[in-house]
Amino acid sequence: MPTSEIKESDKIYKIINARLLIEHEIVENAYLWFQNGKIIHPQNLFFSARRDADEIIDAKGLLVVPGFIDTQINGSYGIDFADYEEPVEVLQKNIDKVAKGLLQYGCTAFCPTVVSSAAEVYQKVLPLLNHRKGSATGGAEILGAHVEGPFISVLKKGAHKQAVFKDAKNGIKDFDEVYGPELLKGNKAVSIITMAPEIDGVCDAIPDLVARGITISMGHSACRIAEAEEAVTKGANSITHLFNAMQAFHHRDPGLIGVLGACDLPIPETSVGHPAPSSTSPDRKRPDPRPFYGLICDGVHVHPNSIRMAYYSHPTGAVLVTDTLSAAGLPSGIYQLGGSEVEVVEDGAAYIKGTTTLAGSTITIVQCIRNFRKFTNCPLVEAIEAATLHPARLLGIEDRKGTLNVGGDADLVFLDDTNGDIAVKRVFVAGEEVKL
């Protein structure tokens, strides 16, 4: 059948002249096949369907990697995901605008983040942030919301509004009351919850939340090391924006940061949701029991030396996040974050207006990768995996995201790295090319 007569959805695409990131290595002069938005194995085509590719895509020597995943983004382009006062139709258009805008930076999937809010906010906005497939015209895939608070510490509130903070003395019931019926959908609606382990009832509720498929991240916390380790043993597998909104490291009680050095946590029975073993793991052949940790690599939130220390302590746990707020993609000025005024200064840092309290960033995910590589001197592959494979493993979706393995989604980014840096040249979402 001529290519012109084949339905677009059935077309088989073959990428040639590519350098592919496969199994932690860059493979030169490689091919990649995809169909119906999924990466496929060509052997079945030749021996079963007796078909060749319908369309050839020449990568011209560019590096082809999985689409980037951002698990913490509060908004962009003047839009804040915690804004609930507009009509639902307007809020949906705003979400779509952000999802489309992210594609130019190679971000093909994300967790829209809602800072600590009142119950009525969650009940209005969370239904709009449910899991949604991505497309070249519709924008990056939504992986479910990241709700950051309100079960967090007053001592480490950051830019969050203390008036809405909650405890969980009644366990999972308190979480259901705050977030509403969307929480019953599990990770289809709420992908990640950031909480402070020391808040009453929080640790006891973790197993029930994990049972719903929700990722538990520790953050905005003044917890001691024992409380952090207890949360990990109950199912927490992440730390939200490491070093920020937590106790400073102390050699006698390192607090939440100290979990990166833990050596006696129970070894996970499964690799799902856990970092791969590394040279610093308690067991170098089994999944690492230590949590993943988010890093905002804008050079403001965390000193480059601290980024380097975290990476060398626990390399497979690094997850790059932007933590962008509504000002991302816009010039310096005054913007909103969860109802608070935030001022963005010339270097891109954002602060609660009139204070020195950081309130998010304006960096892009591709710039995070560049900075992470620069700060740590790690190989390019590891820098890219911190924005692809690692967040996919964190969310337990590495079977379809974060790699170029057969069966995975054809979310692809073509990178030019000829000058020692990386630049996004082409982007595909579910096999469709984005017009950049």
Automatic annotation (TrEMBL):
Database matches in CDD domains: NagA
Record text on cofactor binding: Binds 1 divalent metal cation per subunit.
Binding site for Zn(2+): 148, 220, 241
Binding site for substrate: 159, 244-245, 252, 301, 358-360
Co-factor(s): a divalent metal cation
GO terms (BP aspect): N-acetylglucosamine catabolic process
Active site (record annotation): 323
Gene Ontology MF annotations: metal ion binding; N-acetylglucosamine-6-phosphate deacetylase activity
The protein's name in its UniProt record: N-acetylglucosamine-6-phosphate deacetylase
UniProt-listed Enzyme Commission number(s): 3.5.1.25
Recorded family membership: Belongs to the metallo-dependent hydrolases superfamily. NagA family.
Domain Amidohydrolase-related residue range list: 63-434
Reactions it catalyzes: N-acetyl-D-glucosamine 6-phosphate + H2O = D-glucosamine 6-phosphate + acetate
InterPro entries in alphabetical order: Amidohydro-rel, GlcNAc_6-P_deAcase, Metal-dep_hydrolase_composite, Metal_Hydrolase
Alphabetically ordered keywords of this record: Carbohydrate metabolism, Hydrolase, Metal-binding
